[in-house]
Amino acid sequence: MHRLHAITFDLDDTLWDNDGVMELTEHGHYRWLHAALAAHYAPEQTSRLLELGHADGLADYVERRLRLAREVPERRGDFTWLRLRALEEQLQAVGFNRAEAVVWAEAAMEEFHRLRLNVTPHPEADSLLATLGQRYRLAAITNGNIQLARQPLAHHFPVAIAAGELFTPKPDPRAFLTTLERLDAAPQRAMHVGDSWAEDILPANWLGMHAAWVSSEHDRPLPAGVQRIAHVRELPELLEWLERRR
Questions:
Q1: Is 195 helix (H, G, I), strand (E, B) or coil?
Q2: Are residues 176 and 204 in contact, defined by beta-carbon separation less than 8 angstroms?
Q3: pTM of the model
Q4: How does the average pLDDT of the chain come out, rounded?
Q5: DSSP-derived secondary structure for 144-169
């Protein structure tokens, strides 16, 4: 094993539990939009949107996002773009003009991003990253659309990649290669840490990176270079073990 120079991290469900965050964000920003429009316009101007109601309106919004992802496949991982365009479409469909739809869609996405930041890193994450940062070059690679510069662990990552916004959502290896280039690290001297077998572990392993799979699953055989940990807190112990094997 080569000495590791860099470690890249997935974010959601790796450095924090994402359970519930997306649901609250999804419902919260859409509810905010309905309330803001109702407060700003006369009832007759918003009646068609409000008649949809929260549940039906949200379902229509989701379907528009899914359709856009199919129609514009290069944008399928750019969730902010998909949400903006879907909201603009929906608002125009219920009678708002193009300019109004753009303004209100952007305002709703501002609320989305505010709510999306309500993640709570694992208690060990901050000190763990601070310690690792003294020895390794660190980076984040995410398919999510959390605002990377504002997320609570941002100060630990001089390199942070929103893969979907680069049109290379994981498991596209280009997201990893872009990150490694910015870290000035060869794949065999880097490790990726993530919870998704398909989006994190397989592409990292294919590129020749080491990988730490954050998972409680124990019945999957692991290829060479892949280790399983139940929680990110176990990463320092794994790194020490790998260093002893070097």
A1: coil
A2: yes
A3: 0.93
A4: 95
A5: S-S-TTTSTTGGG-SEEEEGGGGT--
pLDDT confidence of residue 1: 61
Q: Give 170-196 pLDDT, tens digit per residue.
A: 999 999 999 999 999 999 999 999 999
d(CA 102, CA 99): 5
pLDDT of the residue at 218: 87
C-alpha to C-alpha distance for 16 and 32, rounded to whole angstroms: 25
Tell me the average pLDDT across 3-24: 95
DSSP string spanning 87-98? HHHHHHHTT--H
Residue 244: predicted pLDDT: 87
Domains and CATH numbers, the chain: 6-17+120-245 (3.40.50.1000), 21-116 (1.20.120)
Strand order in the sheet with 190-194: 159-162, 137-142, 6-9, 190-194, 210-214, 226-229
Start-to-end C-alpha separation, the chain: 5
Residues in the chain, total: 246
DSSP SS3 for 124: coil
Strand 226-229 relative to strand 137-142: parallel, antiparallel, unpaired?
unpaired
For residue 233, the 8-state DSSP code is G
**Residue 44 binned pLDDT confidence (cut-offs 50, 70, 90):** confident
Measured over all CA atoms, what is the biggest interatomic distance in the chain, rounded to whole angstroms?
71
Q: Which two tokens stand for residue 21?
A: 């965050």
Q: Residue 89: CB partners within 8 Å, gap ≥ 6?
A: 64, 68, 101
pLDDT at 89 over 90: yes
Q: At what angle do helices 43-71 and 79-93 cross, to 10 degrees?
A: 140
Q: Which of 22, 26, 27 is nearest to 12 (CA)?
A: 22
**Gap between the Cα atoms of 77 and 19, Å rounded:** 20
